[in-house]
Design a protein that fits this description.
Helix 3 runs antiparallel to helix 5 (about 105-130) and helix 5 runs antiparallel to helix 6. This protein is about 80% helix and about 0% strand. The protein is globular, with a radius of gyration of 21 Å. It is mostly helical.
């Protein structure tokens, strides 16, 4: 296992290469791929609006937009989850070198970056127009876009971590979407209380396993190595250093969100368990 000093020196050596990947790769694969993904998600959203209107013709405009937004996210996240799981299982190596972590796998996994970028490019205006999304969620979308661009464009972009962070993460979003469907329709909870409880447990277990157990060790590696990449930059353009620093801050924000959401889930599970515990006799 390399010491922190050895990691720093090996990361510093990578700066002898061009800062960015080839213009052809960035323009023809990352930019065009992201725009194509945005168009596909937008089309899915349009179809979702039509489907919701057909299913509930009496629904108000805000209700239609809310349901269509949620349905679009469910479809997009399912697509991303299986794509990320495929790369995580078949492409990403178990014990990569520091150089592979910093520079490797982009040619193989860039579609996952494009799809996440496309979803979030759609979600920023859609979230503001369709459901008046919170500022935290908007910052989340912007942070994902920033990380996607930097990871797919920088030579030293650390895209090794993205199949997990950008793909496998969304597996827990699938049961969450169904739980939210129940919460938006209380009648379903009354009709299927056991199923609702089971779905909540599946969501909690998948979130904590993927976004805590698998993610937290990885985010330390990511932040440490990318931090070494930033402080070892010499004589580069200020805008490059600014972009790298903002990306690092965005990763800290995204990581903090996972910890915060996980704490909320743990509290919810504990409260549910205490509620089911019989009171003390006597």
């Amino acid at each position: 296992m390399a010491t922190y000093q050895e990691e720093y020196e090996r990361i510093k050596e990578i700066h002898k290469l061009p800062t960015f990947l080839s213009r052809d790769f960035i323009q023809n694969k990352i930019v065009l791929g992201s725009l194509l993904a945005t168009a596909i998600v937008t089309l899915v959203n349009f179809m979702a609006i039509v489907a919701v209107r057909s299913y509930s013709p009496q629904a108000r405009k805000g209700e239609v937009y809310y349901a269509a937004y949620k349905l679009t996210f469910f479809i997009s996240n399912t697509w991303i989850a299986f794509l990320g799981l495929y790369y995580y299982v078949t492409v990403i190596e178990t014990n990569p070198s520091i150089e592979q972590i910093a520079m490797g796998f982009k040619e193989s996994i860039y579609p996952i970056m494009c799809v996440q970028a496309g979803k979030n490019l759609w979600a920023i205006p859609a979230g503001m127009i369709m459901i008046e999304e919170s500022m935290v969620k908007q910052i989340h979308h912007i942070s994902v876009l920033l990380v996607a661009f930097a990871s797919s464009s920088f030579t030293c972009g650390f895209s090794y971590f993205l199949p997990l962070m950008f793909g496998v993460f969304e597996i827990s979003s699938i049961p969450l979407a169904i739980v939210e469907l129940f919460k938006d329709n209380p009648g379903l909870i009354k009709r299927y209380p056991s199923e609702y409880t089971l779905l909540r447990l599946v969501f909690a277990a998948s979130f904590l396993y993927i976004r805590w157990y698998l993610f937290l060790p990885g985010i330390w590696d990511f932040l440490r190595l990318s931090g070494f990449a930033i402080i070892s930059i010499e004589g580069t353009r200020p805008l490059v250093l600014l972009l790298a620093s903002l990306t690092w801050i965005a990763c800290c924000f995204l990581g903090a969100l996972q910890i915060y959401w996980g704490v909320l889930i743990v509290n919810s599970v504990v409260k549910a368990m205490l509620k089911q515990t019989p009171g003390d006799a006597g």
